[in-house]
Amino acid sequence: MTLTAPTTKLPPAPPTGRGGRPGQRSAARRREAITGYLFTAPTVIGFLVFVLGPLVAALYLSLTKYNILTAPKFVGLDNYARMFRDERLATTYGNTVLYVAAAVVLINGFALLFAVLINQRLPRALTYVFRSAYFFPYLVALVYVSIIWQALFQKDTGILNYYLTAIGGDRIDWLNSSEFAKVSVIIVDTWRNVGFAMLIFVAALQEVPKDMVEAARMDGANEWQVFRRIVLPMISQATFFNITITIIGAFQIYESIIVLTRGGPGDASRSVVMYIAEVAFNKFDMGYASAIAVTLFLIIMLVTLVQFRLRKSWVNNE
Amino acid sequence: MSNLNVPVLPSRKSDGRGVRRRPGVGKSVSVALLVLGAIGMVAPFLWMFTTSLRDASHAYDLPPQWLPTEWNWSNYAAAVSGPVPILRNMLNSAVIAIAVSIGMIITAPMAGYAFAKLEFPGRNSIFVGLLSSLMVPAQVTIIPLFLLMRTFGLLDNPLSLILPGITGALGVFLLRQFFLGLPQEIIDAARMDGATAWQTYRLIALPLAKNAVSTLGVITFLGSWNAYFAPSIFLNSTDTATLPLGLVLMLGPYGAGNVAEVMAATTIAIAPALIVFLVAQRWIIASLTQSAVKG
């Protein structure tokens, strides 16, 4: 109360650091703590109500039988045991793992290739145009780009098959054959996400010291050796980030498949998230759907944690 | 192959010319590859726009025309007056996206500032807890959230998407990163001059974070504008549907909708992303890449 505040409305100003008496200092500290809690309160409440609470509820529901009309009935681990006998779950998880593998390899492979190409000393305007073109699909809703692509994929009217037959190939039933339905989903997923991963790689490539690369060239290293021994280790943190992001994203693949193939033919292109949504909101088997969702959560958590550990060993963190 | 055993000095000499020539050849090859890739990225959008301007009866004409051959805007009129209320859906999307963005740019900078610049017991563990929510996929929480919204009568109501959207760990993380880089002296000086914690934040720190906050706003807006999963579960009538839901309805099962009209509606739907992209590309790219590269 010894300090006068500029306006009467202000509460006492905090002590000027070291000068204050112990009592004053702890009062100031308490005020700062209260401010901290108030500032974080909306976010923390949102987290508790919309993330942590539902997560705990999902864990509980996964141990019950619940059709939303009658109260949940505790069934222990029945839902988890049921998964091992569920062939549709095996199919949809199999598809999803394929999408994940394809995403990791194709998105990151193309992204790295384009990033290395774009990182050469090209005219500025050209770099800008390329970066924009590759990145734009990432900003557009997956639903919208999938709507465009499903038209391009049409067997008789689509332009993909037009060009395919023009160069002497056979028409492909992109959306209705069980192999190509998956291929179509992978094409759209790669096409949309390559730009974002590329930007991450470009940002990392720009941090690679040029003199280090020059020195290696002087010593007779060829381009591949420079890339393999210097550039790749230097950008490993970006690689780590991109791989994690693509794995997590691909495990959750959903709306592109809804638009392209509706999961078909049969379950040939259905992802596990589509299956969860079907079990929960068409069949109202909330307990079983929650159990499947929990496995997805565990996988994503595991991937994140494993990569976090790996990062320490193979990421160059200097 | 003959190069393998060449001693370092001569090879450097002969490389002297090679170095100058190789980038020339390499560069044109890489530009060619990049052009090819860029065409692949842009072509679907070009086809969408061209098709949206064609008469419906010519929409499937092959060979495909890449540049508009006719400027027939009637598909746009038909798209917005069809059985699916596209304009209404667009308004729904806009209301939700704007509300979510405003909420986010209020809550996230405050929390980010507190985690970066204020001392309080449990600060770090709360922050780590929040960050761990980034590992929780939306599919896990969607069933309890659905039940929650159902209990409070919020199904088929935009609030079911707004309330969970106005806070989030990613924004807090981005803004905390920014505020960590803010010199402590600025904060201390303001406090010494008698400003309260709120005034220091509101009048000193927040204005400095203008770019970070705008970027967060843009990213949040686009994320909401593009969302499909949660809206498809919480909303179930054509009047409350957001634009992505409306377009999927319009497309119909197995892509049976009139393709020219669907492409006209898709063009309309993509326009905001295009505008944001043209205006804010630089910021978005900078903020999206910094967290990955600088860790």
Secondary-structure blueprint:
The complex is a heterodimer of chains A (318) and B (295).
Chain A: H1 22-61, E1 64-65, E2 73-74, H2 78-84, H3 87-118, H4 124-139, H5 142-152, H6 159-166, H7 178-205, H8 210-218, H9 223-234, H10 236-251, H11 255-260, H12 272-281, H13 286-314
Helix pairs in contact in A: 2-13, 3-7, 3-10, 3-12, 4-7, 7-10, 8-9, 10-13, 12-13
Chain B: H1 8-52, H2 74-80, H3 86-117, H4 123-132, H5 138-151, H6 159-165, H7 169-180, H8 184-192, H9 197-208, H10 210-226, H11 229-234, H12 243-251, H13 259-293
Helix pairs in contact in B: 1-13, 2-13, 3-6, 3-7, 3-10, 3-12, 8-9, 10-13, 12-13
Structure, explained:
The complex is a heterodimer of chains A (318) and B (295). With 318 residues, chain A is an all-alpha fold. Chain A has 2 domains: 17-61, no CATH class; 78-314, MetI-like (MetI-like fold, Orthogonal Bundle). Chain A is built from 13 helices and 2 strands. Chain A has helices spanning 22-61, 78-84, 87-118, 124-139, 142-152, 159-166, 178-205, 210-218, 223-234, 236-251, 255-260, 272-281, 286-314, and strands at 64-65, 73-74. Chain A has a two-stranded antiparallel ribbon with strand order 1-2. In chain A, strand 1 and strand 2 form a beta hairpin. Chain A is flat and about 70 Å long. Chain B is an all-alpha fold and 295 residues long. Chain B has 2 domains: 2-72, no CATH class; 82-293, MetI-like fold (Orthogonal Bundle). The relative contact order of chain B is 0.13. The chains are: A mainly alpha (318), B mainly alpha (295). Chains A and B meet through helix 1, helix 3, helix 4, helix 5 and helix 6 of A and helix 1, helix 3, helix 4, helix 5 and helix 8 of B.
Produce a short descriptive summary.
With 318 residues, chain A is an all-alpha fold.
* Residues in β-strands, percent of chain B: under 5%
CATH superfamily annotation of the largest domain in chain B? MetI-like
Q: What Rg of chain B, in angstroms, do the CA atoms define?
A: 26 Å
The secondary-structure element order of chain A is: HEEHHHHHHHHHHHH
Q: What's the alpha carbon Rg of chain A, rounded to whole Å?
A: 27 Å
What's the total count of β strands of chain A?
2
What is the strand arrangement across the widest sheet of chain A? 1-2
- Kindly identify the CATH topology of the largest domain in chain A: MetI-like fold
Query: Termini of chain B, distance in Å?
Result: 42 Å
The major beta sheet of chain A can be summarized as: 2 strands, antiparallel
